[in-house]
Amino acid sequence: MKDAANDPLEWLLLDDARRPLPDDGFARRVALALPPARRPSPWLRPALVLGSAAVGSAAAWTFAPAGTSLAQGFLDLARLQSHTPSALAAIALALAMAVTAAVLVAEEN
Amino acid sequence: MTGRPDPADAELVLAVVVRDDREAFARLVRRHQSMVRSVLRRLARGDHGLADDLAQETFLLAWRNIRAFRYDARFSTWLYRIALNAWLSHARKRREVLLDDPDDTPEAPPPGEGIAAADRIDLERALAGLPDGERAAIAACYYADLTHEEAAEALGIPLGTVKTHILRAKARLRAKLGKEEPR
Description:
- The complex is a heterodimer.
- Chain A contains 5 helices and no strands.
- Chain A has helices at residues 8-18, 26-33, 44-63, 70-78, 85-108.
- Chain A is mainly alpha-helical.
- Chain A has a domain at 44-108.
- Chain B contains 8 helices and no strands.
- Chain B has helices at residues 9-19, 22-43, 48-64, 75-100, 117-128, 132-143, 148-155, 159-177.
- Chain B starts with 8 loop residues before the first helix and ends in a 6-residue tail after the last helix.
- Chain A binds chain B through residues 1, 6-10, 12-17, 19-21, 23, 26-27, 29-31, 33-35, 37-38, and chain B through 20, 22, 25-26, 29-30, 33-34, 37-38, 52, 55-56, 59-60, 63-64, 112, 115, 119-120, 123, 138, 141-143, 145, 148, 166, 170, 173-174, 177, 179-183.
């Protein structure tokens, strides 16, 4: 197809095809026509994660059995009593905080 | 001192996908605008304004769909397909108008330099007079620098048809331009 040595038409086509077109502002027009850059708020994701954790903690506290308190839970854990309702609530809170921290660190990276 | 070598297309595409990097995309535009606009000028029968509008649409579509790019293909081939589809979509909308318009001659291109600006003008006019299929085959194989096989796949026609289109187109161009076939 592209043996241009002895073929004036082949030569003309190849020469025309290889001739670079000057940009003439084309790339700038394309750049201006692009949709605006995505700029999500840097606080949006942390706020969502912390908010979810706060709502979950509030719900857990509201529906916890009577007499359950976090302070009591940590005291129970200190005495190696991990199966009381208060101790389980303290473990759940610690887990929620650990997951929240992990998500925020992953987002930061 | 040598500068940093130009990053490959795939690296620039990755920068756009991962970091929404507009400068990387601008480099892709600058690198490929000539091919895209040349192909579209051929497809649009030398209408430079229409070709540039479709070229802009091509790059905007490329930006929007860049995550669909498969890295095992050439970026230029992927762009060519988008440009071809943009032109086909435009041609489908305009088909009746184009067929009914008796004065469908292309505008004359600005004078070039060096080898025969007149030859270029003649070539542009002769290309504009080719049937759609033959013009599309010439645009794919010469202006987009695709192989016959790649052109057949991109145009959705058999390989034999591409070869026939090229042969017929060149015969017509020779007749119009007075370029004799090599012996």
